[in-house]
Amino acid sequence: MYLVVGLGNPDRQYADTFHNVGFLVADRLARLLGANFDKGECRAICAHARLCGEKVIVAKPITYMNLSGESLKELVKKYKIEREKCVVVYDDADMPLGAIRLRKSGSGGSHNGMKNIIENMRTEDIFRVRVGIGRPQNDRMELKDYVLGKINDGQRTLLEPALENAAQALKMFVSGADADAGTKKNWKPIFGTVCCFTLTGAFGLSAIAMARQPAWCSACGPTGWTKPARFCG
Questions:
Q1: pLDDT tens for residues 72-116?
Q2: Which of 25, 141, 206, 223 is most buried (most C-beta within 10 Å)?
């Protein structure tokens, strides 16, 4: 069983803000899996699906950002989910707008939601997908006002491809595509003729994707993703 947790704040006033990027990616992943957010449990709204014979839970905690780890911990305990099959997706103001980075472990940095998850899980060894939101261009704007501000049309143009690619990467993860270390391969989502993202072995631990310019790949379609032989769905 896999658990994907998108971080954000539940109130309507926070919809379409940078700090709710985790929710936006979770929504896209649920659509890719053909699942609906129709179950409330463990202080989260959840979508349940199956992929490659495995159950997948996509969760959006309603604890508010700073207590996200409490919801994740409850879900892990309820379903007895292995830590290696949990992954968190969230916004990162220390990365350029439209970038995504996948990591196997590390601190929570300046992100209170991720710090709370590490505190509750008592380990930094948690898979995570970080989506870059950049920082305010106006030096007089506080960072907290920026991350809780609405995403404008220009920013959305840069962000949308990253949201889609993050959801696709998560689908690969929950498909078990990297589960067998003996058959690790490089899977390269591509944009046009330029490969700007490499997912290697255990979730592309140090890979970074600059998803600034969406393009149609003649081989793969509009997402620009190659489809490895072991990737179900």
A1: 999 999 999 999 999 999 999 999 999 999 898 999 988 999 999
A2: 25
- Alpha-helical (H) ranges within the chain are 21-33, 68-79, 112-121, 143-147, 153-174
What's the one-letter identity of residue 90? Answer: Y
Computed over its alpha carbons, how large is the radius of gyration of the chain? 17
Write out the E strands in the chain: 2-6, 37-41, 44-51, 54-61, 86-92, 99-103, 127-132, 186-187, 190-191, 194-195, 199-200, 208-210
Query: How far is 186 from 60, CA to CA, in rounded Å?
Result: 30
Percent of the chain with pLDDT over 90: 68
Q: Which two tokens stand for residue 57?
A: 């839970």
Q: By the 8 A CB rule, do 108 and 92 touch?
A: no
Q: Which long-range contacts (CB under 8 A, 24 or more apart) does 108-115 make?
A: 111/7, 112/65, 112/66, 113/7, 113/22, 113/65, 113/66, 113/68, 113/69, 114/7, 114/68, 114/88, 114/90
Instruction: Judge whether 44 and 62 are in contact, CB under 8 Å.
Output: yes
Token pair listed for 84: 């290696």
Which pLDDT belongs to residue 110? 86
* Amino acid code (one letter) for 102: L
Indicate the pTM of the whole model: 0.80
Out of 4, 5, 19, 42, the active site residue is: 19
d(CA 62, CA 16): 16
Task: Extract the tokens encoding 50.
Answer: 């199956």
| Sequence letter at residue 36 | N
